[in-house]
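Appendix B: complex inputs.
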Amino acid sequence: MKVKAPEAPKSPAAIALLAFALFWIALVIVLPLVNVLFEAFRTGVAPYLAAILEPDAISAIKLTLLVAAIAVPLNAVFGIAAAWCITRFEFRGKGLLLSVLDLPFTLSPVISGLVWILLFGAHGWFGAWLDAHNIRIVFALPGLVIATVLVTLPFVARELIPLMLDQGTDEEIAAVTLGARGWDVFFRITLPNIKWALTYGVLLCTARAMGEFGAVSIVSGHIRGLTNTLPLHIEVLYNEYNTVAAFATASILAGLAIVTLILKTLLEWRFADELAAHRRH
Amino acid sequence: MSLTVQNITKSFSDFAALDNVSFEAHSGEFLALLGPSGSGKTTLLRLLAGLDQPDSGSVTFEGEDYLALNARERRIGMVFQSYALFRHMTVEQNIAFGLNVRPSKDRPSKAEIKAKVQSLLKLIQLEDLGKRFPSQLSGGQRQRVALARALAISPRILLLDEPFGALDALVRKDLRRWLRRIHDETGVTTIFVTHDQEEALDLADRVVVLKDGQIEQIGKPLELYRKPASSFVFDFLGTNNQVTATVSGAEAKFDGFTAPAVVSGELTGPQVVRFRPFDAHLSKDGPGFKGKVLSILPAGANLRLELQSEDGTVFETQHAHDSDASDLALNDTVYVKPIKVYVFGN
Amino acid sequence: MTTDSPISAGDARLETNGRSAHQIKPEGFKPPKATHRTQHVLPGFHASLGITLTYLSLIVLLPLVALVLRPWEAGLDGFIRTVTDERVLKALQLSFTTAFWAAVVNLFAGLIVAWVLTRYEFPGKKIIDAIVDLPFALPTAVAGVSLSSLYAPNGWVGSLFDPMGIKIAYTPIGIFIALVFIGLPFVVRSVQPVLAEFDAEVEEAALTLGATPMQTAIRVILPSLAPALITGFSLAFARAVGEYGSVIFIAGNMPYISEISPLLIVIKLEEFDYAGAASVAIAMLALSFTILLVTNFVQVLLSRRGRA
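Resulting structure:
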């Protein structure tokens, strides 16, 4: 099948469409991004540096990294296991499993936080028991982690499943008939084939894990310097009318988003064939 | 209603797709553009349809400059290789499309469009499938819908790009005959592109043979067969055997025997000569090329033999089932004598 | 985890078929236990399925069960009282109407952006293409504070409208703007691949049949984009209904006026009204799923008509 190659816009209609698209992207996407940097440096570099080097900011950065460092590997391992059983075997209830896998994408972040309060909060199912044993889950690190895990759960699996379905099982079956054993098949055949898609999924998962706001905000309890991740730190500062510090912190996350976009785009250009055909997040 | 193509040249960034191509399609003619892939035949068809523009040359239809018109204005019915049916429209909607998109002053009334669609459905023998979607049709049915859609705009010329390319062999033969009948009924000048020599010879009134963007020969199927203009045309029209012989006049001398030769140009001395599988005579004791029977296979109405000579050359010959050849067995020794050879200078 | 060799796998199958395989076994050969694992050629079915089911049960299903069971503490009455409370109704209405209109705007804007990105060649196209994904990558809180400051009466954009008496930030218009921001990539990324793979011959066919470029776009290309447009619309809509971070700073959060449903959940939690929070959540989910069902139904209708 032949597809139409893009060409320079010539007709007035084409130019009008192009102009509208550029205007819209500038207004809706670029302007808010530029505004973050503008507001962050509004009073100069010194206040900016002061804001991001302040102890609460540093501890927010550390906590954000820690949460992502725990949540992302968990979801990566899960994503590989889920993609393996879904794409390599036939079993009853697969459709249902896929729907459950997609659920976190359709949940409001607030609901993704709420459910953990219902389980582990003071009046939650396990609240009294946890209290009696002096275990803290919500308003502490474990709560931040599980909320982040729930929100970012499908990213890796969703990236791997279409690709592995597309690649089929021929190579792995060939390896088995040649005598390869369990992990050999995975590490020598499957992993090299999916490594870029895995990288891609992990990248998106990490970006979302570090930037998650709604779910984390509910389970964190907003304890400054203790359970505030970067996005929550922004909220606290903004609500205190400390605009410069809020935007300075926001600029760190905006930078992170831009780095994510660049890496993502590079992966897409370089390894288009080795990434899944249809991507929607 | 004749179409004249003159000195058309078209090159893409690095190669010449068409090089100084000229031919004429007479009114009501069924013309085939035949050539291997990359010979420029599809490019030529797209130029005629207005989907591409040539670098130089002219295309006129009854004296009117066709290159000055865009694809929309040429009123050419084009049947694409992939059929390119609109999959969200029913068969009827597909066929009516070309009438429905006309500006309101030229558009036939709803009733007229409906009648036209019905008559075309009848022509393609799909009266009962008008409400179906293309995805619910077989390949052959889709092809017929694509043809009806092209015919609906009462095209001045019908262009078909590898019309049978995507079909399996059985359906292909059926549709071929049917297409010829449609052409004879509608009388519309038709040009079709194919890489299948059998298809071209079977269907077309005349065949234009293309090679590397240039025309090798234009002629009626029999002319091409009997008087091929070049070794390319000869080779392209079917399998043949090649041996060397000393040519003088209309005769080719071999080691111990001669054969009548069709010589293009004035060629004498040692030459490569070609002969068709059925222009060969077999005998038990010569004269001819001595060979051993490698295989005996039925090829339709004929028997096809492969023979290997002592120097390793393999000959392919064809004979009637009831000829002497049918008595042969594998590994029998037999002599092959060409009864008519062709000699080309190039 | 071990794999069985092809030979032993074959043996096991013979045995499970009820036939004795003793005679063909070489001496000293111990048949492997015929577990059902041997039915799979590839290893790891039970391990991977086990991990998947356990993980999904603990992380997704258990919490959702807790959510579904919670609202009924005060009986069905309690639930109905909560979700028919005027403040809750207003919040649900606000969330769903702003999400709907934002998705509608994104449907058109996203279609145009996708069209421009696939049809035209222009300088900087690759950067524009990449930057469309920014709303996916930018943390919602960052978008929230930035939009809020842009559209506040003293912000870059807000100050243009303020003299006309139009307030954007801290009104439902502000919510709508934030939802337009986060929803755009959903439509673009749904439509773009379909448009990029649109068969050029189909378009040329329309052209040779006499259609103008406009007629071709509207009658031939657009209908084949319908499923992708609906998908993009429903993804943008679903995301917008539950959106919190990018909305909360610009919304103003005035009860009955600019208070979105997710915020109501937060407020009820702060009042330790777990059942109330869960009730609002269930109401949101029920409405969202109804809408997803409707769009799925439309998709099925379209595909029956041969459009899929």
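Helices of chain B lie at 41-49, 91-100, 110-123, 139-152, 169-186, 197-203, 221-226, 231-236.
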